[in-house]
Amino acid sequence: MTRADEFRALHDDFLLLPNAWDVASAAALAGAGFAAVGTTSLGVAAGAGLTDGVALSRTETVALATRLAGLPVPVTVDVEGGFSDDPGAVRDLGHELAAMGIAGVNLEDGRENRGLADPAHHARLVAAMGESGLFVNARTDTHWLDIERDSTLDRVRAYVDAGADGVFVPGVVADAEVEALVAAAGVPVNLLFQPGRLSIETVRALGVRRVSTGSLLFRAALGAALETAGAVRDGVPLLREVPTVRQIQGL
């Protein structure tokens, strides 16, 4: 069984997918017992001083994927919009990731300047990526960017028809919209966890097969770093337990 097949099988029930931004965070999540690990394009791009979602972080994304491929759990990589509008280049990226042992990708139709790709063209990118054998999670940003929401289900169907193994619609939280999405997709539906807005128990009961944390863990880690630095500066007790050097080196 390939890593992609192993990852597909995790969607037979329900998968909570945490998203890492570097080797240490990914190794820690795998070591904590999560069945698979994803990456967050925001975390990878920001960590390199780059802007997310504008096709600038291909080199950093592939370099991280190379290091994560050896983890003992399947890894899926956020590749933004494929880092190219050329199906051939997207196909090559898919084969490159598959060859190193990556299990899947997220491929989004959001584009820079808060726009959306033409769905027919994005479907061609989905099909090109799918030639690699990776689990292709086709993401539409209609709700995330709050534009063209009425095209959501049509986009989902177009991407599934192009061979997407799953669909990801971040920003959907209302029960009725979740139900409509699950009914229309015919493949595993992935939602984004949003604290206070999305209940994992509820959406799982509605048929959602995967919930991702997106950039939440990366942002929480930055918040914790600032909180800890402030506590040291201000001479107040630390509010959370901090991993030891030995624990970090043992990842």
From TrEMBL:
Database matches in InterPro entries: ICL/PEPM, Pyrv/PenolPyrv_kinase-like_dom, Pyrv_kinase-like_dom_sf
CDD domains in UniProt: ICL_PEPM (cd00377)
Domain of life of the source: Bacteria
Pfam families referenced in this protein's UniProt entry, alphabetically: PEP_mutase
SUPFAM superfamilies for the chain: Phosphoenolpyruvate/pyruvate domain (SSF51621)
Keyword terms: Lyase
Molecular function, one GO term: lyase activity
Name of the protein described by the UniProt record: 2-methylisocitrate lyase-like PEP mutase family enzyme
Lineage: Bacteria, Bacillati, Actinomycetota, Actinomycetes, Pseudonocardiales
